[in-house]
From TrEMBL:
Localization in the cell: Cell membrane
Domain of life of the native organism: Bacteria
Name this protein carries in UniProt: Putative membrane protein YeiH
High-level lineage: Bacteria, Bacillati, Actinomycetota, Actinomycetes, Micrococcales
Gene Ontology cellular component list: plasma membrane
Residue spans crossing the bilayer: 6-28, 35-56, 68-85, 154-171, 177-195
Bilayer topology term: Multi-pass membrane protein
UniProt keyword annotations, A-Z: Cell membrane, Membrane, Transmembrane, Transmembrane helix
Length: 212
């Protein structure tokens, strides 16, 4: 395994860890749940997008079940939340930042894998976006909450940007660690700006959220 592959693997595992923390925190904050529930929700959030991607690419069994490190990292992240839930609940902003890291990394790795499997650019962008938002969407559905991808305008949009930049770099034969980091950074920055300034994508005029 070369240096570039090692770096991308580390980034992928970092995204897995970040999403596991986020999913498990969502579990302990929004529902009354035991350790199995916390671990399950954390791991689904961390691994769900990648599993959906691999199923759609017919890459079976999914990478998650071929490399034990993904399952181990996801379980470890969720278990940390279960043990230290009371203390971790006080650091919402850092967790959101890590969630943005996971979104960014998975959008890039999802799009690049789709391109490597011969999908077209548009399809690869869609699949990259799905990889980034898939786990969180499953998580929200399981706890009966409107998925973030449908209620937070700058959640899917950053993933689309990151996946789009990845596809563009691959089509121009410029893809590598540097291009992947740039694409992920752009996705991360847009997501963080959305969190910081509470930005949303345009909504239909004359409509109100369910919370109004």
């Amino acid at each position: 395994m070369g240096p570039e592959q090692i770096l991308l693997l580390l980034l992928d595992l970092l995204g897995t860890f970040a999403f596991a923390l986020n999913g498990a925190l969502t579990a302990v904050r929004h529902v009354r749940i035991d350790i199995i529930g916390v671990l399950t929700l954390g791991m689904i959030t961390a691994l769900g997008g990648g599993i959906l991607r691999d199923i759609m690419l017919n890459d079976l069994p999914p990478a998650t079940f071929q490399d034990w490190r993904y399952l181990a990292v996801a379980a470890f992240g969720a278990f940390i939340v279960f043990i230290f839930a009371k203390h971790l609940g006080r650091i919402t902003v850092p967790i959101e930042v890590l969630d943005a890291v996971g979104l960014s990394v998975f959008a890039v790795t999802g799009a690049s894998k789709a391109m490597e499997y011969g999908l077209g650019p548009v399809q690869s962008i869609i699949l990259g976006t799905l990889t980034g938002v898939g786990g969180g969407t499953i998580r929200d559905a399981l706890i009966g909450r409107i998925p973030s991808v449908m209620s937070e305008g700058l959640y899917a949009v950053p993933a689309i940007v990151g996946a789009g930049l990845t596809v563009a770099a691959m089509m121009a034969d410029l893809y590598g660690v540097a291009a992947a980091v740039i694409a992920a950074s752009a996705c991360w920055l847009i997501r963080i700006i959305g969190i910081r300034y509470k930005l949303d994508a345009p909504t239909p005029r004359g409509t109100h959220s369910l919370e109004d």
